[in-house]
Amino acid sequence: MPTPMIDFDALSQAMKSRTVLCIGDLMLDEFVYGEVSRISPEAPAPVIAAQRSEHHIGGAGNVARNVAALGASCIFVGLVGSDEAATRLKAALTDEIGIESILVCDPTRPTTRKVRFVSEHFSTHMLRADWEQAAPASAEVEQKLIDAILPQLARADIVLLSDYAKGVLTARVIRNVIDAARKLGKRVIVDPKSLNFAIYRSATLLTPNRKEFSEATRSRADTDQSIVAAAQDVMQLADCEAILVTQSERGMTLVLRSGEAVHIPAHPVKVRDVSGAGDTVAAVLATSLAADADWETALRMANAAAAVAVGKQGTASVSAAELRRKILPHAYLAAEEKIVLEADALDAQLGEWRKQGLRVGFTNGCFDILHPGHVKVLTAARAACDRLIVGLNSDASVRRLKGEGRPVQDERARAEVLAALEAVDLVAIFDEDTPIRLITQIRPSVLVKGGDYTREQVVGHEVVEAAGGTVMLVDILQGFSTTTLVDRARGGGK
Where are the beta strands (DSSP E) in 82-228? Predict the structure, then answer.
């Protein structure tokens, strides 16, 4: 799979003009938090001294909240009963900016409600109580759902089915929605619950977790290889383009119909609560794909969002700002924290990034007076990788290359200016005339230079390509040159 060009800000901006049609099982999530200090005298059960409670839009409604939190618009279609939980959900959805809800009422069934009792001190779930009727909607309600959904398809950029097996996504509803969406050229993402993946036939992408995938395919699904093999059979059966298997702390594996596959390790995070993490993954995938992201970019966005979600308590949504911070963590470091002076420190950081499965990019230069041409190359370089290291010529190196009187700024000043750029994750200063030692140490996945070079002229291209990496040349911005700027400042040019 080719290296994706990831530009988070451009992708985030594109999301704001996209609409996701989300259909699925709505539920009310309630969390009761308290302390447990004794066992009940009436039975061998802990007693929770309730201190506070929270209500959240759950199930497929949480998918809609995550779509809206990313800045996209969401049309949500769901099913409620005629009860207090329905009233509370309607009010909550009305208050959500970016969500247009269309709720079909079935007075014969309760609105799905889940109450979780959580130890405040240990952040562990002790008990969950469910109010629900997990039966397919009646034929009459099915038709109401279909009539509510189909007119919305033309307004949507992508369709997302969030199946919790509570009755909304019956075989008939699923078939009507997928067939109508595909006729209009709309992609359909399914977070499945049924183990018969064939009922989602012709969907674009299925996103089961590992347990669901293992049971549906009757495979162990305990290695990337076994997942890829089983996924190929399922994609033939379900006639879908791709399958994403989420594996909690083991990350995610995406398999395409073409046979290509990519595995992304999970971000190392402290897990507080996994409630709703699957909702977040489905929402980010759908919204990213709607914004024209490629498969791997959408996958990496979803993986980062899941790491944010599990670090929160309760059913949580992930905002664009939170996702940006997870994807661009070094943008929030002070400039001096990005400058590495020792080889051991660089090795340690590289080791951390490689454990996370991140692609490391590299570019280099003197960067004596930073100008728009430099910024263009650095921005393009960062878009082609997950972490960008900039090799910076030391003062002695610049003097040998550029002559006496250069550099204009010393190496520390130049390093701090580079490190202040969001596109730059680390700055490594080197004393040699070329960065070949650094490139050999880093072994980047992507080596980037300006388009005034040819591939053969790029120092280190043999090292990078031998290790399976690529060389990327960025068109230079005409009219900008440090030498020209220095001459002009010194009166040597107009």
Answer: 99-105, 113-119, 124-131, 158-162, 187-191, 205-206
* H-only helix segments in 165-223: 171-183, 210-217
Range of the domain at 54: 8-327
What is the C-alpha separation between 364 and 383, in angstroms, rounded?
A: 16
Q: Answer yes or no: is 91 within a domain.
A: yes
**Cα 347 to Cα 352: distance, rounded to the nearest angstrom:** 9
Domain boundary among 327, 348, 377: 327
Strand pairing class (426-430; 470-474): unpaired
Q: Cα–Cα distance between 263 and 358 in angstroms, integer? A: 11
- DSSP string for 53-67: EEEEEEEHHHHHHHH
Q: Where are the alpha helices (DSSP H) in 129-256?
A: 139-149, 171-183, 210-217, 224-238
pLDDT tens string 36-81: 889 999 999 889 999 999 899 999 999 999 999 999 999 999 999 9
The 10s digit of each residue's pLDDT in 410-432 is 999 999 999 988 889 999 999 99
Does the annotation count 83 as an active-site position? no
Which residue in 52, 60, 6 sits closest to 30, CA to CA?
A: 52
Which of 279, 368, 386, 425 does the annotation list as catalytic? 279
The count of domains in the chain is 2
Domain harbouring 58, CATH code: 3.40.1190.20
Q: How many Å apart are CA 79 and CA 246, to the nearest integer?
A: 27
Tokens encoding 266: 């999970």
Distance between CA atoms of residues 448 and 393, nearest Å: 16
Indicate whether 323 and 335 sit together in one domain.
Answer: no
- Domain identity same for 316 and 387: no
Q: Which residues fall within 8 angstroms of residue 433, CB to CB, at 6 or more apart?
A: 397, 400, 401
DSSP three-state, residue 148: helix
Note whether 249 and 272 are same-domain residues: yes
Backbone φ and ψ for 227, nearest 5 degrees, come out as -65, -45
Sequence-distant contacts of 186-189: CB under 8 A, at least 24 apart: 186/153, 186/156, 186/157, 186/158, 186/159, 187/158, 187/159, 187/289, 187/290, 188/158, 188/159, 188/160, 188/161, 189/158, 189/159, 189/160, 189/161, 189/282, 189/285, 189/286, 189/289
Instruction: With respect to residue 3, please indicate whether it lies within any of the assigned structural domains.
Output: no
